[in-house]
Amino acid sequence: MQPVTKVFKYPFQFNLEQGRYLPGFELAYTTYGKLNEQKSNVIWVCHALTGNANPNDWWHGLVGEGKLYNPGEHFIVCANVIGSCYGSTSPLSVDPENGQPFFHRFPLITVRDVVAAMELLREHLEIDSIQVCIGGSLGGQQALEWVIEYPKAIRKLILIAANASHSPWGIAFNESQRMAIAADHTWKNDSLDAGLEGLKAARSIAMLTYRHYDTYNFSQARDNSDQIDDFRAATYQQYQGEKFIRRFNAFSYWTLTKMMDTHNVGRNRNGLVSALQGIALPTLIIGIASDLLFPVREQYFLQTHIPDSTYQEIDSLYGHDGFLVDYGPLTRIIQGWQGEIPS
Fold first, then answer.
1. What value does the mean pLDDT of the chain take?
2. How much is the average pLDDT of 329-341?
């Protein structure tokens, strides 16, 4: 059984939270498995910052045949968010109102806008309710926003390395990455390759937030005690930047980091605590002890204020990226939690 990728086309004006609009949009999405007669086997995966619509690509330890979420049992859905460059409407898309790519004119997209688009896709797929909505990092931010804005859409929620509001620390890192892009003299151009050298530097900055001090000590140690140049840690940063610009673009990266900055479930809802206390479904929250970007205090906050919630923690060498690497502990935690709550 193979994942099936399609495109959902919404041809109407799509009003955005900050007051602008898109003249319609497209969402690339993947389904994996079959919807059962009761429509009760839906697993909706929300991807992180630079993920695509196929979790079998980037979460193959959790999604796939013989894995935690097996397409033989589940109907797995994942949609590429607006703004990303993997098939959904993005800054590289043509604006139908003038026939030119958006580029720098692409509007600010918030996490709530992303969720509103996915809710339209859910209705299009005739999914009455999502059995489990799961996401890590920006994916967890989406899942949390979704269950608050549309409380009847989801039955169980799993949040991994996520938070209720993006922190000043996280916003500062995102702004530093955008400063790197803006420092590239090509960034002012309306062209597909604008800002790529800056994007390389931005990715290098990002890697320091995704990993941990111990990660680099383990995997990028000096070749010998006498070394004075050509360090593995330095070449690794260069490699990560080069690899990233082969699969992404600066416009989408700018858009998505701005989107992450908007995350705040308490906005216009009487604050974070009020918003979280209104969640009325079983919620599993997983933190990563070594996470520098989304420290576990943020997951403690979620668990403290979401009424029917459970907190579990993994200890990963890989910091924030542990949710993309440590499949064994994640699988055991999720299986244990799912076995404890009513189906």
1. 97
2. 93
Domain shared by 53 and 88, yes or no: yes
Q: Do 225 and 237 share a domain, yes or no?
A: yes
User: Is 332 labelled as part of a ligand binding site?
Assistant: no
Alpha-carbon distances, residue 149 vs 109, 119, 136, 144 (angstroms): 16, 10, 19, 9
Question: Does the pLDDT of residue 1 top 90, yes or no?
Answer: no
Residue where a domain stops, chosen among 222, 245, 260 = 260
Taking the C-alpha atoms of residue 302 and residue 325, their distance in angstroms, rounded to an integer, is 23
pTM, two decimals, is 0.97
Whether 136 and 162 have beta carbons less than 8 Å apart is answered as yes
The reply, when asked if residue 203 is annotated as ligand binding, is: yes
pLDDT at site 340: 79
pLDDT over 90 at 341, yes or no: no
- List strands edge to edge, sheet with 130-136: 4-10, 25-32, 75-79, 42-46, 130-136, 154-160, 283-288, 309-314
Q: Same structural domain for residues 158 and 36?
A: yes
Q: Please count the structural domains in the chain.
A: 2
Tell whether 288 and 309 lie within a shared domain: yes
249 and 272 together in one domain: no
One domain, residues 12 and 150: yes
Q: Among residues 2, 134, 153, which one has the least CA distance to residue 62?
A: 134
Its domain, for residue 93, covers 4-166+263-340
Q: Is the pLDDT of residue 215 over 90?
A: yes
Q: Report pLDDT digits (tens) over 22-32.
A: 999 999 999 99
pLDDT digits (tens, 9 = 90+) for 280-291: 999 999 999 999
CATH number of the domain enclosing 194: 1.10.1740.110
pLDDT above 90: residue 342: no
Q: DSSP letter string over 270-303?
A: T-HHHHHHT--S-EEEEEETT-SSS-HHHHHHHH
- Active-site residues: which are they? 137, 291, 320
